[in-house]
Specification:
flat
């Protein structure tokens, strides 16, 4: 439905806010040297454009993205054609005020009372009575005001929804855009129009007929019935020439003809409106007459008229918006007349200071589009001079450059481009003045970067041609400015697309000038440069430059090292010398090893450039492996480190060389040196790494040789020492130690410490959160070391690890196996304690320091006992967790067995009641209703007075017992437990009654207690004419009693069952109304009498339906407030749709949910598969939960919902 701003206060408010509502023109074609298209053509009325202002926000945004406004021009100023205003009559042009919801609601209530009074009074007046016409008109005014109020409410609701939608979109969420709904306000608007028609038809002499005619014309036009609107306006002018509405009628007719390209009648009506003398009418009429001149090509007269409007509107504050629009439209006239100087002078004199820039910017853009480049340059130059630090200054300067390009003035273009770079590049005075405006800086960045890039490229090319040192240095300086400004920002948005390439060119110029240190640094910067993550940057950047830069950096640092060592002299080019940029840079020299004693030498620090040379070699080898220069680069870095006594690092590097180049002569020389250095310095990790590489390299360590055997021993020894001494003891890194111990056990499974290391690795991995590694270690332990004394620790830890990866079946099984293993170990320990100690025997001779058999046995026995004692503290948790995990695995029977075992074994623990409740809940989840009922009942009996259980928990146990009996259809037990719940409520302490779950349980019990009354009430039918009066009285008596009972349920405070009770009240009234309408007809009545009889029945049923709707709407309102989506919510919606078709859309059935405040427990799951507490109503009854509407098949994707819904509750 399209939105129409049809009410005076709201419409004028939109005018004041937007500075003109709607556009009565298509976009004017902006082409140089061509006459503009007529500004009167329109695809829709101005009123509709006004109404769409808010509704079409996404579309408007997309259009703005397609073509941004010119620099300095606000989006709201980009409008072609004249603006529109609302009628001048007070009824349509009252000023908006700040909404006061409470006061407006109170006024609306009073208005509703007045409407009802008029509706009762008017039928009593005789047709043709003038007083009746007046009453009808007053009623129409009330309808009008009611429609305006509802429209304001609807728009407020829509705008709030739109704000939420915008916020969601800003967060990246995919949500459906809100839609406007004006059905209620349109209904009252239709009523108003109907009364207007009746007054005009039945009361031709009504004194206010002129106002009625204007109102009808105005509304007809808003609704798109334009011919009817024109007819009403013409009738008003013809029959009431002196009416105060005639000037507005002329305006409306003028707008109509103007928008349909009928300029002659449009102009005639505007002139008549102008001649009325009404200030607002006069100003707007002259404004529209100026646009008539524009469309006929009479720009000078049109310009003068707009000048008149500006001057005239300045005298009246209420015409401020029209003055703003006239100033904005003057730009179009000045462009057509090519009068930039006059425009500048006029706007500076007449326009508000804050709008002068916008108006001049729009004028300048129009001059460019019209091909008036000189005039545009003059205007843009004025803008820059007036605000040199303004946000739009760079774009104005760019527009000046482009205007000169349009004039083909190339020298001036270059001059203006340099001016742009000097003024607006990063770090300058303008940049600092605008540093808090990101978008502004982005625009300036793009403009200045392009200009500087073009300039530095030209200088570099010139330097290559002349080969002069001076020219190269000039290009170098400009490159540095470019790099600093456009290639060094931490924010990638302010790094130019061409920054990577130009940074490399900068380094090349530094090399050509033999500035080795600066060149090396820039080459490094190129290698490390991160190309911005955007397609334009990736397409421009040449990645081949990165490899060249990496190698060139090595060459530059090599020269610097040689200068440090005095091997070459420092370069110093003089002015006038020639530079050969294409000269070959050379290669890396090969190095030789000189053996040194590692023990007697202290490590020396590398010099500045030695360090950087090593780093540069490493970077190249890492980025570009397998290059022809790799072995030379590796040796260069290794030799530098070795010469400075960095033996560990040097040995590692030699090892890498040996591994990759085993057949190289230098590899054989380095192998012995590497092993010796690392072992003597106890660098275990490096030794282990390299020795493994040696061992795997069959070309270096041939199988069966002494070298291969020794290396294998070094691998095992260094591995263990590294994990134990370095990772665990020195670094104190248990996570890493666990990982390495696992690797150690895998590689050396026969080690006497393998089982201990594996257990240790599992525990450490668990503590470090490395679940997968812990599981692998534990499962491997049980498989490979089943008789280890660490078995109990392994089983208990494994159970916890299985839980963390949701392997609940394995976790439960492992927990129970742990308990069983513990019991077996405890029994074995007791049996060992009862055995007599063996007699002392002579000890066999053993090697010194070795452990004899008896000592070993005692040590192992003590260790096993300590481990069993430790495991004893875990048994209770393991037994309980087994029940929880069996539940998680979908094995409720095993869960109950585990819980019962816990209750039996640890009956004195505080948490026993909670475990017993969990066992009962497991039966409930399995839908073993008999067992569940017994379990919950036994819980209440056993723990009802137990201090370890709360009164709320006992109450909920009874409630679950009730639900189980409901499933079993055991009416007697259900009634018993239901009664106990109701009686027990008042005995609960206050804090328990505040518990949401307890409150819902009580509400459900109270609700179920009303079921007999509901069945009794719905059983009363008006099936016989002879007993209809008696049945009517009986049903009326029952509904009063029934409503009282359901209101008592509502008063419990339960959200779920309060909603159900309200829904039942609504269903009761609906049932009453339906029975009245379905009652049999009396015999002996003719057709007319029968119609009268049925009409009376409708009169009786209508108030009942209203009450039904009221109760159902209250139920839905409360459901939405609490976030409850239950069968009762759908029932209420369905019944409202029956009473008011279309009020709610057809809802796809899904699983239901309770209120958000409902408390949940890990041990209690959602109950499923419940049946209705009452028989399913017949198809002709009002629809209840669990029943599809008449004639409609049940949903295929959802089971039948329960009548008395059972939600998730706290145990």
């Amino acid at each position: 439905m399209k939105v129409v701003l049809r009410f005076g206060a709201l419409a004028v408010g939109a005018v004041l806010i937007t500075g003109g509502v709607g556009e009565a023109a298509e976009t004017q074609t902006r082409r140089a040297g061509k006459k503009p298209v007529s500004a009167s053509a329109s695809k829709s009325s101005g009123a509709k454009a006004a109404g769409k202002k808010k509704a079409a926000k996404p579309q408007a945004a997309s259009k703005a993205e397609e073509k941004a406004p010119p620099p300095g021009v606000a989006p709201e100023d980009v409008r072609q054609g004249p603006a529109r205003v609302q009628p001048a009559s007070a009824k349509f042009a009252e000023l908006p005020r700040i909404p006061d919801a409470k006061r407006d609601a109170l006024a609306d209530k009073k208005r509703d009372e007045a409407i009802e009074a008029f509706k009762r009074l008017i039928p009593k007046l005789r047709d043709g009575n003038p007083q009746k016409a007046e009453m009808l008109y007053r009623l129409s005014e009330l309808y009008w005001e009611k429609s305006k109020y509802l429209y304001q409410v609807e728009m407020t609701r829509f705008l709030e929804a739109e704000k939420k939608f915008d916020a969601a979109v800003a967060r990246g969420e995919k949500v459906e855009a809100p839609k406007q709904d004006h059905r209620d306000s349109e209904r009252y608007r239709t009523e108003t129009m109907g009364i207007y028609e009746e007054i005009l038809r039945a009361y031709p002499d009504y004194p206010q007929r002129d106002e009625v005619l204007f109102s009808m014309g105005y509304n007809y036009y808003e609704l798109g019935r334009r011919e009817d609107a024109v007819a009403r306006y013409e009738e008003l002018i013809r029959d009431f020439p002196k009416s105060q509405f005639v000037p507005d009628a002329y305006i409306q007719l003028g707008n109509h003809y103007f928008e349909n390209n009928k300029l002659i009648p449009a102009k005639q009506n505007y002139e008549k409106a102008r001649d009325s003398g009404v200030p607002k009418i006069y100003a707007y009429a002259v404004y529209k007459l100026s646009w008539c001149d524009y469309n006929t090509g009479d720009y000078e007269p049109g310009l003068k008229k707009l000048h008149e409007v500006v001057d005239y509107a300045a005298k009246s504050p209420e015409l401020g918006d029209l003055r703003t629009e006239a100033l904005n439209d003057l730009t179009v006239f000045y462009v057509q007349l090519d009068q930039p100087k006059q425009a500048i002078a006029y706007f500076k004199e007449k326009a508000p200071e804050q709008r002068v820039g916008r108006l001049l910017a729009k004028t300048a853009a129009g001059l460019v589009d019209a091909g008036h480049f000189d005039s545009a340059i003059l205007t843009y130059r004025t803008l820059v001079d007036d605000a040199p630090m303004g946000a739009n200054a760079p774009e104005y300067q760019q527009a000046i450059v482009r205007a000169h390009e349009g004039l083909r003035q190339r020298q001036t273009v270059r001059k203006e481009m340099k001016r742009m770079v000097d003024l607006y590049s990063p770090g300058g005075e303008w940049w600092k003045a605008n540093e808090d405006k990101t978008t502004v800086l982005r625009n300036a960045f793009n403009v200045t970067e392009e200009a500087m890039r073009v300039m530095v490229t030209e200088y570099h090319q010139e330097a290559q041609k002349t080969r002069q040192v001076e020219t190269y240095r000039l290009a170098r300086d400009i490159y540095k400015q470019y790099v600093d400004a456009f290639a060094s920002n931490a924010n990638p948005d302010f790094v130019a697309d061409s920054a990577f390439n130009l940074r490399f060119f900068y380094a090349e110029i530094l090399w050509a000038l033999e500035e080795w240190e600066a060149a090396a640094a820039e080459y490094d910067a190129v290698v490390a440069f991160k190309i911005p993550d955007r397609d334009t940057a990736r397409e421009v950047s040449n990645e081949a430059y990165r490899k060249s830069a990496s190698y060139n950096a090595i060459l530059a640092y090599d020269k610097l090292v040689k200068i440090e060592r005095g091997q070459i002299a420092k370069s110093d080019l003089r002015d006038g010398q020639k530079v050969d940029e294409k000269k070959d840079k050379g290669d890396v020299a090969k190095q030789k090893i000189v053996k040194r004693d590692a023990k007697d030498r202290q490590e020396e620090p590398l010099t500045k450039f030695e360090d950087r040379l090593v780093a540069a070699c490493d970077v190249y080898v890492k980025l570009y492996p397998n290059s022809p220069d790799e072995i030379d680069l590796r040796y260069q870095s290794a030799v530098i480190l070795y010469d400075r006594s960095h033996f560990v690092d040097a040995a590692r590097r030699f090892g890498e060389i040996i591994e990759k180049f085993p057949e190289e002569r230098r590899s054989r020389d380095a192998a012995d040196l590497t092993m010796y250095v690392l072992e003597s310095r106890e660098e275990w990790l490096e030794l282990n790494t390299l020795s493994r590489k040696f061992l795997d390299n069959k070309k270096l360590s041939k199988p069966g040789t002494d070298f291969a055997v020794r290396v294998s021993r070094v691998v095992e020894g260094s591995q263990y020492k590294w994990v134990d001494e370095i990772v665990y003891k020195k670094e104190k890194n248990p996570k890493k130690a666990a990982e390495e111990f696992l690797r150690f056990v895998t590689e050396f499974p026969k080690s006497e410490n393998a089982d201990r290391a594996l257990t240790y690795a599992m525990v450490i991995a668990q503590e470090a959160g490395e679940i997968d590694k812990g599981l692998a270690a534990g499962e491997r332990f049980l498989k490979e070391y089943p008789r280890s004394p660490f078995e109990l620790k392994a089983r208990y830890s494994l159970a916890g690890l299985y839980e963390k990866v949701a392997e609940y079946r394995k976790a439960a099984t492992m927990a129970e196996s742990f308990v069983a293993s513990y019991d077996a170990a405890l029994k074995a320990q007791d049996a060992d304690g009862k055995k007599s100690k063996p007699k002392a025997t002579a000890k066999a001779d053993v090697a010194p320091g070795a452990e004899d058999a008896e000592t070993r046995r005692e040590r192992l026995s003590a260790e096993r006992k300590a481990l069993v004692d430790e495991a004893g503290g875990w048994v209770a948790d393991a037994q309980f967790n087994a029940g929880v995990w069996w539940e998680g695995a979908g094995e409720p029977q095993k869960a109950v067995a585990a819980y019962n075992a816990y209750v039996s074994r640890f009956k004195d623990r505080k948490d026993v009641p909670q475990v017993a409740f969990a066992a009962a809940s497991a039966w409930e989840k399995e839908k073993r209703w008999s067992e569940a009922a017994r379990a919950f009942g036994a819980f209440a009996e056993t723990y009802g007075r137990d201090s370890r259980s709360s009164s709320a928990q006992v109450y909920l146990a009874r409630y679950h017992e009730l639900l189980a009996y409901e499933q079993l259809k055991n009416a007697r037990e259900q009634e018993r437990v239901q009664g106990e719940l109701v009686k027990a409520w008042n005995r609960l302490p206050e804090n328990a009654r505040k518990d949401t779950a307890v409150l819902n349980a009580y509400g459900h019990a109270r609700f179920l207690s009303v079921e007999p009354a509901w069945k009794r009430y719905t059983g009363i039918r008006f099936s016989r004419v002879s007993t209809i009066r008696r049945d009517l009285a009986a049903k009326q008596k029952e509904i009063q009693r029934l409503e009282k009972e359901y209101l008592a349920v509502l008063s419990t405070g339960s959200g779920d069952w309060g909603i159900a009770a309200l829904t039942r009240v609504g269903l009761a009234y609906a049932d009453f109304a339906r029975n009245i309408m379905d009652s049999p007809d009396p015999t002996g009545l003719d057709e007319e009498q029968l119609a009268m009889y049925r009409g009376e029945l409708e009169n009786l049923a209508l108030p009942l339906e209203d009450k039904a709707s009221e109760a159902l709407e209250k139920a839905l309102e409360k459901a939405y407030e609490l976030g409850v989506y239950s069968p009762w919510t759908l029932t209420a919606q369905d019944q409202v749709n029956r009473l008011r078709p279309g009020a709610y859309a057809q809802v796809r059935q899904v699983n239901y949910r309770g209120s958000d405040t409902l408390v949940r427990s890990d041990l209690v799951r959602v109950l499923e598969g419940a049946t209705a507490t009452t028989p399913v109503p017949e198809s002709e009854k009002p629809t209840e939960p669990g029943q599809e509407p008449a004639g409609q098949q049940p949903s295929d994707d959802a089971a039948q919902a329960p009548t008395a819904w059972r939600g998730e509750v706290l145990r």
